[in-house]
Amino acid sequence: MKPIAVNPAALPAPSGYSHGTLHGNTLYLGGQTALDKDMRIVDGGIVAQFRQAFGNLLTTLREAGGEPEDLVSITIYLTDIADYQAHGKEIGKVWRELAGPVYPAMAGIGCTELWQPEAMIEILGTAVIPDERLKVPQE
């Protein structure tokens, strides 16, 4: 069995990477920043960027038949941890709106910068999708 790229049409077309890689029923979700469909980082600060980045990740998850409860691990890279912490309640509200009361293993890691200079956050993850919901993209 070889890995299969998962690249939803709703997200910007990847070049040199995949939004996700499916191997068996494990989906490795590539890092998502707050890029919108026009390849621009959304305005509005860390809460708006969290909403877009996490939404992008969930779009990839759903493309393979996954749901938020299938997430087993999330890593969040942040250029300003204090700003994220200051908006923690708002970010938590967005999380529950998009994913419900699902909390996989998580890590938050501070970094000096991300691929797009205006990006404040990048989220990557791993999900294990039950066979009965798994949708394998056609190559």
Summed up, the helix count is: 3
Mean pLDDT: 96
* N-to-C SSE string, H for helix and E for strand: EEEHEHHEE
Unreliable residue runs? none
Shape: globular
Please give the alpha-carbon distance between the first and last residues.
Answer: 13 Å
Structural features:
Enamine deaminase RidA (YjgF/YER057c/UK114 family); six-stranded mixed β-sheet; 139 residues; 6 strands; deaminase activity; 60s Ribosomal Protein L30, Chain: A; alpha+beta; YjgF/YER057c/UK114; 3 helices
Describe this structure in words.
The protein has 139 residues and is an alpha+beta fold. It has a single domain (21-128), classed as 2-Layer Sandwich (60s Ribosomal Protein L30, Chain: A). The chain is built from 3 helices and 6 strands. The two termini are 13 Å apart.
Structure in a nutshell:
Helices cover 27% and strands 26% of the residues. It is built from three helices and six strands.
